[in-house]
Each structure stands twice: as C-alpha cells, then as structure tokens.
Write a structure and sequence with these properties.
- This protein is α+β, with helices and mostly antiparallel strands.
- It is about 45% helix and about 20% strand.
- Helix 1 packs across helix 2.
Amino acid sequence: MQEEQDANGARPGLALRIGIAGALGIGAVVSGLVVSRRGRRLVREAWQGRRRTRLEDRVLDVFWGDPVLGRRDLEVTELEPGVIAVSGGVAAAVEGRRAVRLAGEVRDVRDVEDRIEVDSRLRLPRRLQV
C-alpha cells in the first residue's frame, strides 16, 4: 500500500522514521560508551571537564587494554614532556611493576614516576594468585 503525499510531495512519517533511526543510532553509541570501561571513564572525565594530554591518553589506552590493569583505577599525569606519574591502587606489587613497565614502553615516555599503592582490599586475578 502506497502512502499518500502531502502538498510538498513528502510522505508523512518519513521524518518520524528518520528521527527514530537517528535516536537509535545515538543510543547505540552512548550505550557502547557506558557499557565499556573505557567509555565510562571517558564519559566521567568529560563530565568533570578533565582534558588529558596525548601521552596520558596513550598510556591509559595501554592500561585499559590490559586484562588486569584495565580493571584498576589508575591515573596518569604528564608532569613534563615525556615524564609521567602513575598513581592509583593495585592488588599486588606485581601489578604495580607491570603498570610502570608498560607505561615506560609507550612511545615518547622518557621516565615514569611510580606513585602506585598496593591495596589489599582489591581482588587479585586468579592467574596471579599464589
């Protein structure tokens, strides 16, 4: 069945369909941000008005991609060009050493200041448990 056209030749309901499709697309993007850890942190930092440097972004991307460190609340601050500080809590010293090592391997990082604290209340991943 063909829809009738209005005086301008447009089909009623087409704008509604386009609007619904747009809302669904925006909803998919937003829910993807809220569902992932990276997305939640991105939304939180945007809400707080925090702007990271490119180097901070690269280091955090490495952390967030790590199955263990991605679950930790680690912060990265560029103290001066090429020098970063890593802070936050980890479940064991081995996690802290891994974070510092990974941060030091990121392109353009010259030095890493370790401000990480071991927090025994955090759960240690099974593969790292003794």
